[in-house]
Specification:
The complex is a heterotrimer of chains A (about 280), B (about 290) and C (about 240). By secondary structure, chain B is mostly helical. Chain B has a single domain, classed as ABC transporter involved in vitamin B12 uptake, BtuC. Chain B is built from eleven helices and two strands. Chain B has a two-stranded antiparallel sheet. In chain B, helix 1 packs antiparallel against helix 10 and helix 9 crosses helix 10. Chain C is of the alpha/beta class. The longest helix of chain C has 16 residues. Classes of the chains: A mainly alpha (about 280), B mainly alpha (about 290), C alpha/beta (about 240). At the A-B interface, helix 3, helix 4, helix 9 and helix 11 of A face helix 2, helix 4, helix 5, helix 9 and helix 11 of B.
């Protein structure tokens, strides 16, 4: 059990769990909004922002890169809404358009950085697969703080968010502005993707948003239960994934976390089947 | 000659992408394209581990296999567990992609598939991959040949399946009543998509290839009124962007594929902006 | 505005792009009555209902409620959306759905008081949904789903109930139940406005009918409108009353 006292392991574990619980909570809201793939769009949409911050300030500080990522993530989600509202392209198409153009722009910026020999550029391409081991304890503190902030906003606005997601016309009657709270959800999604990028990686952060929510949805008939169960799944999946990647040397953490969460999803569907079968046989 | 090779490969990718992408866009399955290009990775790695050769038929089969598995699982999870379709897509492709990455890391010594190459590709390396016969005859780069075969396949597929594909996209129930095997066409489209993704990824990268599928048809879709013109216009936009993107990338000294995609994105957004501007002039009242 | 009216529309117009959905509509809705908004497809029935509810702003004209501005009496008006507009898979139970109408009176940290819980339980009881409180809304039958939304409106103490095609997809039994419930709501002194398309049972429960085709063709008691020549004109051929 020596890994329990290994500071690197503890660091990674804390980081992964903190990120997973905020993405899982935001993911539940995106899931019921039928907007689960926004996480994928945001993850790719974040890239240009990160590289822009790097190009202009040459910093690798998690906080600054996250701010850049959040801003370009927000731009992406705004563009998706804009295209879907103003043209005849469906929301699905709009997401794909924004995702691929932002990704292309990100690659151009990355190759620009690589061609021009920026100092301190090693590991920038980690953003695609994530590098959890590179987290410092300062990064963990930032991630923890931002996660707390996300949770605070979700808890204080829970009822309003529930209302606008379920029945936005009714919400309007109650004096709640649907646009404001829809953009709150997008903003929180962008922030949680931005802080998770460096750990889970752009390609896989989408899974941290979707999988716990989907696994929890099978069981719950209330949104609040769904969120709590998703968080439990996220913590289990995150810890199991970190353990797996720690057990085998040179194993990336992000993919293992994703695979563990997917295992939880499939186990959960299996259990549901058995549960339903036992109900009918009675 | 090098420029010619690169542009030819880019154009072939763009034409394939425009044709298949138009069908995907009409079926509102653009994000499925994102899913498939990610999901072929484990198939590639497994095929490579078995045959230990790149560019073989095994890789094609590996990619098709995992593409079809992904498409089947998406439908299965969506229908059996009442998980929304987007969530089911997101869940499956991230899982398959992660399995691919884990396999790559597990067999890092044996697999010479570079992660970066899989993801981003590099058109600049295309001319290095020449096909020289035993007699010493230079037939040009491999990718041109594989992509040419792919183009023939895609054009045949879409010409044969034009009516059922369009009908399924437009009105699934009606198509079913007409005796069209909706499911079969869905999976055959996924198969073509996996095939196109695997053939193109060595040239432009698995994720980059998505831009070639999505952006030109989306731009064309803003203007056209028939499926035929959608395919034609998006192919032309795709080719134009490849040529100008190539020279722009040379000038800026940045990634060629990235530049082509960024240019495509730029074209889309300027098209949308100009269209909205013109529309505003025509009918000032617009309600939602 | 007479003291007897609940809602008053004055010169309401709304258009989608170039096409007017409703044009210059002026109607006075009587308190304590069930009023039907009827007309052919695309005649602007739903648009009128949405303008009355305040969900959409009319492009010209205005709506008065109880002698004041609509926005001041918004909490007295409840709108029950069309069935297709609702995500029946949403993870929400009947109890929570009814309680959403009370959210406004609470801060985020406050729990439901005994009084509010009594209010919501009473609404559930009135609609005959006891025993279904903890069911997810997708597990209810069509009639129960309508009643769950009506219970929410009841719990919010609404005076005016606006319903958009509430009978869609209901079988004969559920239709009968819903008609009984609407009459009960009316008999409690509240007003009901229904978008409806079935003339065969219109006279059974509607007190007044507005015949709509972008403009008001005829407004009067149910029998009066059903037997009027305007009805035939609205549908373009005689005998339309026997359709459906």
């Amino acid at each position: 059990m020596d890994f329990l006292v290994n500071p690197v392991f503890i660091n990674v574990l804390m980081g992964v769990v903190l990120i997973s619980i905020s993405t899982a909570a935001v993911g539940c809201f995106l899931y019921v909004q039928k907007n689960a793939l926004l996480g994928e769009t945001l993850a790719h949409g974040c890239l240009p922002g990160i590289y822009c911050v790097f190009i202009f300030s040459a910093t690798r500080d998690l906080l600054w890169l996250s701010i850049g990522a959040t801003l370009s993530g927000l731009l992406s989600s705004y563009l998706v809404d804009f295209i879907a509202a103003k043209s005849r392209i469906s929301r699905d198409g709009a997401m794909a358009v924004v995702l691929s153009s932002m990704f292309g722009l990100g690659i151009v910026l990355l190759s620009f950085v690589q061609q021009n020999n920026y100092p301190n550029q090693n590991g920038l391409e980690d953003l695609f697969f994530g590098n959890a081991a590179a987290m410092s304890s300062k990064d963990i503190r930032i991630i923890g703080l931002i996660s707390c902030g996300i949770w605070l906003l979700l808890i204080t606005n829970y009822r309003k968010l529930l209302l606008i997601l379920f029945d936005s016309d009714f919400a309007k009657f109650q004096g709640i502005r649907p646009r404001l709270y829809n953009s709150l959800i997008s903003t929180l999604a962008a922030i949680s993707v931005a802080i998770g990028m460096q750990t889970a990686g752009a390609v896989l952060i989408a899974a941290l948003i979707i999988t716990p929510a989907a696994a929890a949805r099978i069981w719950c008939s209330r949104l609040v239960d769904m969120i709590l169960l998703a968080v439990v799944f996220a913590i289990i999946g995150g810890s199991a994934g970190t353990l797996c990647s720690y057990a085998a040397p040179k194993m990336p953490t992000g993919p293992w976390v994703v695979v563990c969460m997917a295992l939880i999803f499939f186990l959960s569907t299996l259990m549901k089947r058995i549960y339903l079968a036992s109900l009918t046989s009675k | 000659m090098i420029a010619l090779y690169i542009i030819t490969v880019g154009c072939l990718v763009a034409v394939n992408g425009a044709i298949l992408g138009s069908v995907l866009l009409l079926r509102r399955m653009s994000m499925m394209c994102d899913a498939i290009v990610h999901a072929i990775l484990p198939g590639l790695v497994v095929a490579y581990l078995i045959t230990s050769s790149r560019g073989s038929f095994a890789m094609l089969f590996g990619a098709i296999g995992s593409g079809i598995i992904a498409a089947t699982l998406v439908e299965f999870v969506h229908l059996k567990f009442r998980i929304t379709r987007e969530a089911s897509i997101g869940l499956m492709f991230t899982t398959l992609f992660s399995i691919g990455i884990i396999l790559l890391a597990l067999f890092a010594g044996q697999v010479k598939l570079d992660q970066d190459c899989v993801l981003f590709g590099e058109l600049a390396y295309v001319p290095l991959d020449l096909w020289i016969t035993d007699e010493g005859l230079n037939l040009g780069p491999y990718p041109i040949w594989t992509l040419a075969f792919l183009t023939i396949g895609v054009v045949t597929y879409v010409s044969v399946g034009f009516r059922p594909l369009v009908l399924c996209a437009f009105d699934k129930e009606f198509a079913r009543l007409q005796g069209i095997k909706v499911q079969r066409w869905h999976y055959s489209l996924m198969l073509m998509l996996s095939l196109a993704a695997v053939t193109s990824f060595q040239a432009v990268g698995a994720i980059m290839v998505m831009g070639f599928f999505i952006l030109p048809p989306a731009t064309a879709y803003l203007f056209i009124s028939s499926v035929r013109s959608l395919i034609l216009l998006s192919s032309s936009i795709g080719i134009l962007c490849v040529v100008s993107g190539f020279y722009l990338a040379q000038y800026l000294n940045v990634s060629i594929a990235g530049c082509i995609i960024t240019l495509n994105g730029f074209v889309f957004f300027s098209a949308l902006a100009s269209k909205l501007y013109l529309k505003l002039n025509l009918s000032p009242v617009r309600n939602t | 505005m007479t003291p007897n009216s609940c809602l008053l529309a004055r010169n309401l117009s709304f258009s989608f792009g170039e096409n007017p959905a409703i044009h210059e509509i002026s109607v006075e809705f009587t308190r304590g009555k069930i009023t039907g908004i009827m007309g052919p497809n695309g005649s602007g029935k739903s648009t009128l209902l949405k303008c009355l509810s305040g969900i959409i702003e009319p492009h010209s004209g205005d709506v008065l409620a109880f002698g004041g501005l609509l926005s001041d009496f918004q909490d007295k008006i409840s709108y029950i959306p069309q069935k297709e507009k609702i995500d029946w898979d949403f993870p929400i139970t009947v109890k929570d759905l009814v309680r959403t109408s009370l959210y406004k009176s609470l801060k985020w940290y406050e729990r439901f008081s005994a009084e509010l819980i009594r209010l919501s339980d009473q609404a559930i009881q009135t609609m005959g949904l006891e025993g279904f409180e903890n069911k997810q809304i997708g597990q209810l039958s069509g009639g129960q789903q309508q009643r769950a939304f009506l219970a929410r409106a009841l719990a919010s103490n609404a005076e005016v109930f606006l319903l958009d095609e509430p009978f869609t997809g209901l079988d004969a039994k559920a239709t009968e139940d819903l008609i009984r419930i609407l009459k009960k709501i009316r008999d409690d002194g509240k007003s009901v406005i229904v978008v409806h398309h079935d003339f065969s049972n219109a006279a059974l429960f509607l007190d007044e009918i507005i015949l709509l085709k972008t403009t008001v063709l005829k407004f009067g008691s149910a029998n009066e409108v059903i037997n009027s020549p305007e009805l035939r004109r609205a549908f373009g051929f005689p005998g339309m009353g026997q359709m459906h």
